[in-house]
Amino acid sequence: MKTLEVIFWTALFIVFYSYLGYGILLYIIIKLRRILGIAKPFSGNDDYEPEVTLFVAAYNEKDYVDEKVKNSFSLAYPKDKVHHVWVTDGSDDGTPDILRNYEGLDVYHEDARGGKIGAMNRGMKFVKTPIVIFSDGNTTLGENSIQEIVNLFKDPKVGCVSGEKRIINKDADAAAGAGEGIYWKYESTLKKWDAELYSVVGAAGELFAIRTELWQEVEKDTLLDDFIISLRVAMSGHTIQYNPEAYAIETASANVKEELKRKIRISAGGIQSVVRLRSLLNVFKYGTLSFQYISHRVLRWTLTPLLLLCIIPINFLLAYNSGMNIQNIYTLLFYGQILFYAAALLGWFLENRKIKIKILFIPYYFFIMNLSVYLGFRRYLKGSQSVNWARAKRGV
Predict the structure, then answer these.
(1) Is the pTM of the predicted complex or chain greater than 0.85?
(2) For residues 245 and 261, which has the higher predicted lDDT (pLDDT)?
(3) Which residues of 182-192 are buried (b: 16+ CB within 10 A; e: fewer)?
(4) Checking DSSP bridges between strand 131-135 and strand 207-211, what pairing results, if any?
(5) Structural domain tally of the chain?
(6) I need a surface site. Which of 26, 50, 259, 273 has the fewest CB within 10 A?
(7) Cα–chain center distance at 18
(8) Distance between the two ends of the chain, CA-based, in angstroms?
(9) In a domain, 113, yes or no
(10) Tens digit of pLDDT for each residue in 168-187?
């Protein structure tokens, strides 16, 4: 039993650390750095206002094109310094034709569908500005997003800037909206602290920017293009910074089924990324960046979901050995797990019956997140996750 106890507490610590412990540790480190005055913001280049390219890779976006283009033209940055590049990949819904009706857009269309990363690799050949800003066709940007991104590039050490993904939450939103919104708020906080410590660990594809000179063509089968692109910039010795004042808005997934579809793709891409960026696991070479990468990303995509599954039977054996005494810590933890997963099951039950009790959607969303890792890992092993767009349906 002693061996089981060691395994149990080790597994429980890793699970806790990957979801909450790392955040707590980051908070403590950041507070200490502020007290000691270690972190000093870069203050040079006040007149830095370079030309930028707003780059959108699109596939069948006819329902969003007009709103997206109008939003792009309305952003608060000198108009003569913003170049608009749209790369359409296999679109057959008239998206390229709609785009060509607008003056000031460079539209590069190709009938063959090669996935988003294929479009990005192709389109980057037409980018001539020092900064390129990537954004999705179905998101709208905050008015000052370009300026807020450029401000961080004043520091020559910064190679990539990630904006914030904001989920529109409505009272009518179900588990997908409630869970996704809460998750992104927590992630936003972690990103702020990551950036203050050293570097964000990956950018959000809805809105991020890099120095064009740091662009590296990405493998055609890449699933998480934003993650791979941004971390390779960080691996080159630059940092990824985060500015929540630069933000992209989109609605939550229409339902949990659609959110699961999205999460499975992300999980398959996460496993692929861990394999492809395996050199970043070397803390002796990459130091703080490796520590942040392992703590914030790798554990969630690999070890933690497996440990969550293993903890339940080990916990039961330890509780059973104690006679299921309610005053025993193992018994309490076992019943706590049962209660948590029962709440997730109830969240699923209520979701299917359109009953909104959002507190139950948190354990449900947590369960869906970890289930997606197993399903994504299976897809990765089978090589069945397509690189082509399979965007989840969004709420209205």
Answers:
(1) yes
(2) 245
(3) bebeebbebbb
(4) antiparallel
(5) 1
(6) 50
(7) 15
(8) 53
(9) no
(10) 755 445 544 555 567 778 88
pLDDT at 357: 65
C-alpha Rg value of the chain to the nearest Å:
22
Residue 323 in any domain: the answer is yes
Phi/psi at 114 (5° precision): -120, 10
395 pLDDT tier (thresholds 50, 70, 90): very low
134 within 8 A of 85, measured Cβ to Cβ: no
d(C-alpha 285, C-alpha 289), whole Å: 9
Residue 55 lies in a domain: no
| 257: in domain | yes
Residue 390 CA, chain-centre distance (Å), reads 16
Range of the domain at 225: 1-40+157-396
Question: pLDDT higher for 178 or 73?
Answer: 73
- E strand map for 113-182: 131-135, 140-141, 158-168
- List, in sequence order, every beta strand (DSSP E) within 41-130: 52-58, 82-89, 105-110
